[in-house]
Amino acid sequence: MAKRAGRIRAGIAGWVFPPWRGSFYPKGLKQKDELGFAARAFTTLEVNGTFYSMQRPETFAAWDAETPEDFVFTLKGPRYITHMKRLKDCELPLANFLASGVLRLGKKLGPILWQLPPNMAFEAERLEGFLALLPHDRAAAAKLAAQHEPRMQGRAWLDPGPKAPLRHAIEPRHPSFADPACVALCRKHGVALAITDGIPDWPQFRELTADFAYLRLHLSDTQVAGYDAAAIAAWAKQAKACAKAGQDVFILFDAAGDETVKVHTPANASAMLQALAAAG
Q1: Sheet of strand 248-255: strand arrangement
Q2: Which tens digits make up the pLDDT trace of 156-167?
Q3: Could you tell me the superkingdom of the organism this chain comes from (predicted)?
Q4: Radius of gyration in angstroms for the set of CA atoms belonging to the chain, rounded to a whole number
Q5: How many domains is the chain built from?
Q6: Per-residue CA distances from 240 to 130, 197, 198, 211, 275 (Å)
Q7: Is 82 exposed, middle or buried, given 0-12, 13-18 or 19+ CB atoms closer than 10 A?
Q8: In a domain, 3, yes or no
């Protein structure tokens, strides 16, 4: 039997950015309608809010209601786990996060991205301890979420929803992660190493360590006009190769440097979707 081709989704990191109003968003569009507009323009969006603060089930329910049936969110894991706890003693914070309403997205719940701080060096024992905690299906996520702190009582969502896998990606930013041991650990635990571009100081992974690929294409300060057509075509070709091999692919455009270049990410994501469609 032929292997199923993977699905490629492309979009942007976040959807609230004032310079997009009048450039990407039509003039006069209300802020409360921006998510719906962006979700119709793209096939995925990366949620930044989950990185900065704990959300509530009703927030996830609203995001579900405002987006098309075939849409999928990706979520950034909390900085409390990655930047404050620094991946140590994370079982309870992870339970709280999973209980906060993440599962309320149902089939629109895509991968969770764990973005590490640039000053965190690779330590195999610490990374493996964290990766071993991550649940890989929604039933396991609900079971862990049930161990949340008492303060979450009354605002926790523990229904696992439809039977489905729960995917995780990790984005290390310290050069020491460019170590075969890091790749081996991610492959062992089925966690995708984010394939990144635009920031030369970060480790540049191209290895596929899970059943999906997670591309984060960061506009650098030198890309004042965004990605050009040739760069879009090259990344689209790589994504198509992954999909042909049976992997789902998520492509998110972001800006890691001066946010003045972030104004170009919607146009780049649109160009990517066009390039993918043209490639057939």
Answers
A1: 192-193, 168-171, 109-115, 72-76, 44-47, 8-13, 248-255, 212-219, 195-197
A2: 999 999 999 999
A3: Bacteria
A4: 18
A5: 1
A6: 31, 17, 20, 14, 10
A7: buried
A8: no
DSSP 177: G
Span 138-153, mean pLDDT? 97
Name residues whose C-beta falls within 8 Å of residue 201's C-beta, 6 or more positions apart in sequence. Answer: 118, 173, 175
Q: Answer whether residue 1 is part of any domain.
A: no
Identify whether the C-beta of residue 247 lies closer than 8 Å to the C-beta of residue 262: no
CA–CA gap between residue 44 and residue 42 (Å, rounded):
6
Q: Are 47 and 90 in contact (CB under 8 A)?
A: no
Alpha carbons 236 and 275: distance in angstroms, whole number? 7
Which has the higher per-residue pLDDT, 279 or 211?
211
pLDDT grade for 115, boundaries at 50, 70 and 90: very high
163-189 in b/e form (b: 16+ CB < 10 A) is: eeebbbbbbbbbeebeeeebbebbeeb
**Do the domain assignments include residue 212?**
yes
DSSP designation for 113: E
User: Which residue has 């690929």 as its token pair?
Assistant: 213
Residue ranges making up the domain that contains 167: 8-279
Distance CA 261, CA 88 (A): 34
Angstrom CA distances, 35 to 6, 31, 46, 182, stand at 26, 8, 11, 36
In percent, the amount of the chain with pLDDT more than 70 equals: 97
113 and 81 in contact (C-beta within 8 Å)?
Answer: no
- Is this model's pTM higher than 0.85 or not? yes
Q: How far apart are CA 8 and CA 52, in angstroms?
A: 27
CA-nearest of 216, 264, 190 to 23 is 264
